């Protein structure tokens, strides 16, 4: 098939010219978080209102566009600050509007697009200092970040290949295909010190250099977009926000190892990511960027997108390959490693989405330039999904070596209580690396975050989930949450993982529900090492990490549950003491009338009391109490 190849230079130039002809750009975030909060309605309202007010509006720029309008309205992928969404960004002023509703659009058009003023009531106000910020780059959440891999994510239209090209996209892939030998590509990436972002931190250049000399005509590249960790959405955001960059990284990886076929494996629960990456592949094919004789190099390259059913274990590389082959997604022992025998027995490189999205930058700017950020052992930046008890949740990117304190208190805006109010001394712990990781505590707040320092204290950077916990969090409950996740997700192939995680879960339940004895912790620790040692894949090997790290730092909290039958954070319902709060109780008697065991006494209009010995914690009284006066029952 002869393809009509796009002229990248002319396309980029035409796009840039068209952009310059438009006075202002309005970018509505259309990442999953903002879409869920109604951003598409905001987008539609904007288009209608701008047209109704007689503004010249363009919604698609490009070489075939006769654009000379006032306003270019476009959608983007995740702009990072999901918690404040739906977000609307105004360029070139860099004004950011938060929590935008369709009803706000008339004001945006009137004040901003017609009278060139920011809409003050829509700008971000810091919850702690109450300071208002008009421009994105002034907001502490963005100010401390260095968005390198995410640079265009949230700015560009992810569904327009011409905008990606206009910003220099695909130039690195072209260079790799036309001007570099595979060995040089491997060497450049090796020299950059890039380490895999999928969890293990293995040097990417080394992985590629090991695959390149493997014999055989046929080799594969796989982009791992499975991302199953609870709380993580970095890879999803990249695929939604800048799919061409991921694709360009895949092409460079293929050039580095001599592959002509690639797969992007994305979980089906990420429909927007699937849709955008599929469109990116189709548009790249149509532009002749993928297909035959790529960049007139004499080499071919194809890419297919595959949806996974959403099993956490399918993110493990050997299980993922089995899944692509149409088998049940179960890991197999290594060796042989994918580099020697991967997809359908052929040499295969499998890399994480963020790893691959970093590669074009290294080829475009050189390994030396890439190393200017990060630490010697962990160069570059890392994206983190910051969630939990923190004022500003969202997707961030910082250089390796940034401290947790900077992330939680400066970017994240500090720790919040369960009602969302900032709690200056409320920090208790942060779970890093999802179910495979561990928790870090106050003494780690000033430790530079990088692969080796985090590993040195028995946790792992993992894929980049950061769940912040305040002082009202029960650490046994947290361990239980992650253990329940891994137990549910165990593929069942090995007994220690299948049965061991179940037993560990039950022991944690014993602790939370007051049935544990002095032996429970010993048994929990014994089982943890058996599961670590006896499991085949990383899921089982790391499943005990949340238990072991909470035990290391919060043993006394476990002991309080076991010995005193008390949950220090007051979160374990079974251990709570039933009580009626005298200052809230109006003495209405509603609870007393409903209690099935007559555990409540009290005079009318006087505070009532519960006899904890008689109470069976059925929770009926709390359900009927209109004054929220009853605590410690189910
Ligand atoms: C249970 C389990 C789940 C995993 N899930 C993912 C995932 O969702 N995405 C990912 O890139 N790597 C995941 N990994 C790591 C992959 O097996 C593999 O190491 C990684 O994709 C390699 O890419 P990298 O070198 O770029 O990090 C998982 C590993 C295990 C053990
Ligand atoms: S460790 Fe668990 S998830 Fe991994 S292969 Fe064994 S049973 Fe399956
Ligand atoms: S929880 Fe049930 S048993 Fe206990 S005081 Fe309330 S209604 Fe009575
Ligand atoms: S989805 Fe809009 S900011 Fe993340």
Describe the structure.
With 634 residues, this protein is α/β, with parallel strands linked by helices. Helix content is 38%, strand content 14%. It is built from 24 helices and 20 strands. The strands form six sheets. A five-stranded mixed sheet has the order 2-3-1-4-5, with helices on one face. A five-stranded mixed sheet has the order 13-12-16-14-15, sandwiched between helices. Strand 12 (381-388) and strand 13 form a beta hairpin. Helix 7 packs across helix 14 (353-365) and helix 19 (495-512) runs antiparallel to helix 20. The radius of gyration is 27 Å and the shape is globular. The relative contact order is 0.08. The mean pLDDT is 94.
How are the SSEs placed, and which strands pair?
Layout: H1 8-21, E1 24-29, H2 32-36, H3 39-52, E2 57-58, E3 71-76, E4 88-91, E5 95-97, H4 105-114, E6 124-125, E7 132-133, H5 140-143, H6 161-166, H7 171-178, H8 182-192, H9 204-211, E8 220-225, H10 234-241, H11 243-257, E9 261-267, H12 271-286, E10 302-308, H13 317-324, E11 348-352, H14 353-365, H15 367-370, E12 381-388, E13 394-399, H16 404-411, E14 427-432, E15 438-441, H17 451-456, E16 465-470, H18 475-489, H19 495-512, H20 518-534, H21 538-542, H22 545-563, E17 579-580, H23 590-594, E18 600-601, E19 609-610, H24 620-624, E20 630-631
Parallel strand pairs: 1-3, 2-3, 8-9, 8-11, 9-10, 12-16
Antiparallel strand pairs: 1-4, 4-5, 6-7, 12-13, 14-15, 14-16, 17-20, 18-19
Quick structural summary:
With 634 residues, the chain is an alpha/beta fold. The chain is 38% helix and 14% strand.
